[in-house]
Amino acid sequence: TLTTTNNQACSTGEVMLAANEAGAYLMGLDYIQCNPGCPPGHTSRQALHLDVSRYVFVDKRGKRFVAEDARRDVLRDAILNLPEKFGYAIVDNDGFNSYNQVVRDDAMKGLKTGDAFKADTLEGLAKQMGVPADQLKKTIADYNAMVDQKKDPDFGKAERNLSHKIEKAPYWAALSSMAVHHTMGGVRIDKETRVLDRQGNVIKGLYAAGEVTGGIHGTNRLGGNAIADIFTFGRIAGNSAANQK
C-alpha cells in the first residue's frame, strides 16, 4: 500500500471534485505515477537516484531488479513487486559529489535517521544495509563490467547511461520506495480547454488547465511535461475564457 507522497500538502484534488459536482467528466483516475521516495513509516526522502548514469538499484538481497533508467511506471511496478516494496539506490563518492547541495544535505540527515548509509567498503555498506555482502560485491562488480562493455544483458539499461562505475569510496546507499508523484487523471477538456460532461457536451463558462485535467499525458507522464502542459493549456484557457468560446 502506498502511504507516502512527494507532493505538497495542499494537493488534495478538491477543485477536481468541485468540477465533477458541476457535471465535469473525470477520466484517467486509475493511472497514478510514482517516483522513488521514502518507504512508509519514514519521513526522509533521499534522492541518490536522480542521475540514472550514477546509481545502481538493488533489493534486500543485494541484487539489481530493474534498469535504473526505466520509465517511471516500470520502476513503480518493479519496486512494488518486491516483497519489501523498497530497495536501495547506491552511488560511489564521485556520484555523491556530482549531486547538488540539497541532495547531499538530505543524505547527511539520512545517516542520522537510518534512511541513508555510508561506508568505506562495500562490505561495510552491506552490513549497514542488512544485505548479503558477497552478493552486493558481485552485483557491483558485474555492473562495473557492464559499464566497460557498454551493455546491460540483465535489464537493458541504455548504453548512454552505462557511463560511470561504482568504484570510488566512500560508498553511499539510500532507502528508496515508491511515493505518489502525479495523478494522471482529472477533468476532461477539449482543445479549447472547455470542460466537458460525461456525454462530451461543453459545460458553459468552465475551463481547466494543468494537473486538474485528465487525458493529456495518457497513462504515464514524462518528467517535466507538466510544466509545458500548464503553460500551454493555461494560455489557451485564458484566451478561451476572454473570448467566451
Mean model confidence by pLDDT = 90
What name is given to the CATH topology of the largest domain? Flavocytochrome C3, Chain A, domain 1
CATH architecture of the largest domain: Alpha-Beta Complex
Structural class, please? alpha+beta
The CATH superfamily of the largest domain appears as Succinate dehydrogenase/fumarate reductase flavoprotein, catalytic domain
User: How many distinct folded domains?
Assistant: 2
Shape: elongated
Strand proportion, as a percent range, falls in 15-25%
Q: Distance between termini?
A: 43 Å
Q: Major β-sheet, in short?
A: 5 strands, antiparallel
Number of helices: 7
Tell how many strands the DSSP assignment holds: 9
Report helical residue fraction.
25-40%
Alpha-carbon Rg, integer: 21 Å
Structural overview:
Strands 2, 3, 4, 5 and 6 form a 5-stranded antiparallel sheet that branches. Strands 1-7 form a two-stranded antiparallel sheet. It is α+β, with helices and mostly antiparallel strands and 245 residues long. It has 2 domains: 14-31 and 184-242, no CATH class; 35-180, Flavocytochrome C3, Chain A, domain 1, CATH 3.90.700. It has 7 helices and 9 strands.
Compact overview of the structure:
The protein has 245 residues and is of the alpha+beta class. The chain has two domains: 14-31 and 184-242, no CATH class; 35-180, Flavocytochrome C3, Chain A, domain 1, CATH 3.90.700. It has seven helices and nine strands.
